[in-house]
Design goal:
The chain has helices at residues 35-57, 97-104, 108-114, and strands spanning 4-9, 12-17, 20-24, 66-75, 78-87. It is of the alpha+beta class. It folds into two domains: 1-32; 34-114, K homology (KH) domain (GMP Synthetase, Chain A, domain 3). The strands form two sheets. Strands 1-2-3 form a three-stranded antiparallel sheet, with no helix packed on it. A two-stranded antiparallel sheet has the order 4-5. A hairpin with a 2-residue loop joins strand 2 (12-17) and strand 3 (20-24). The longest helix is centred in the middle third of the chain and has 23 residues, at 35-57. It is elongated, with a radius of gyration of 18 Å. The two termini are 22 Å apart.
C-alpha cells in the first residue's frame, strides 16, 4: 500500500491512501491529532476491531464493552509499556473473558511492533506536476 504524505499548511501533515485523508497537526493550533497520538490510538482501535469481530461472530452484545488504553512513558517522548484493559458489563459471559484477550492480542499493529519492519528513508528529486 502506498501513502502520500503532504503539507497542507501551518504545522499540518496529512496522509492520503485509498479514498482516505488522515489529517495530523501540532500544537499550539492543533485542529487534528498529532501523529504520535494517532499511532497510539491505532493500537487500541486495532485491538477493538478484533474484540468486535470476536463478539459479532458469536452474536455477543458489544454494548457496554470498551477498551481502556494506558500508555506508560519511558522518557524522551517514548512509551515503555502499553496496557489494554477490556472492560465488559456484568452481563457479559465470563467464559469468554480469556478469548477476548486472545482476540485483542491478534491486532496487526501490536504484532508489527513486536516484529518491527525495516525502515528505508531516502530523497528523490521529482519535477513539479
Amino acid at each position: 500500500m502506498e501513502m502520500l504524505i503532504d503539507f497542507p499548511g501551518g504545522l499540518r501533515v496529512d496522509a492520503h491512501f485509498g479514498s482516505h485523508t488522515v489529517p495530523t497537526d501540532q500544537p499550539p493550533a492543533s485542529a487534528a491529532p498529532m501523529p504520535f497520538e494517532l499511532f497510539l490510538a491505532s493500537i487500541g482501535t486495532c485491538a477493538g476491531i478484533y474484540v468486535l469481530g470476536f463478539c459479532r461472530q458469536r452474536n455477543l452484545p458489544t454494548q457496554g464493552i470498551r477498551i481502556i488504553q494506558r500508555n506508560h512513558p519511558a522518557g524522551a517522548g517514548m512509551i515503555e509499556k502499553i496496557d489494554l484493559e477490556i472492560q465488559v458489563p456484568p452481563s457479559f459471559p465470563a467464559q469468554y473473558y480469556d478469548a477476548l484477550i486472545r482476540s485483542a492480542e491478534l491486532c496487526k499493529v501490536k504484532k508489527t511492533l513486536e516484529h518491527p519492519p525495516i525502515f528505508e528513508v531516502k530523497t528523490k528529486v521529482v519535477e513539479p506536476v
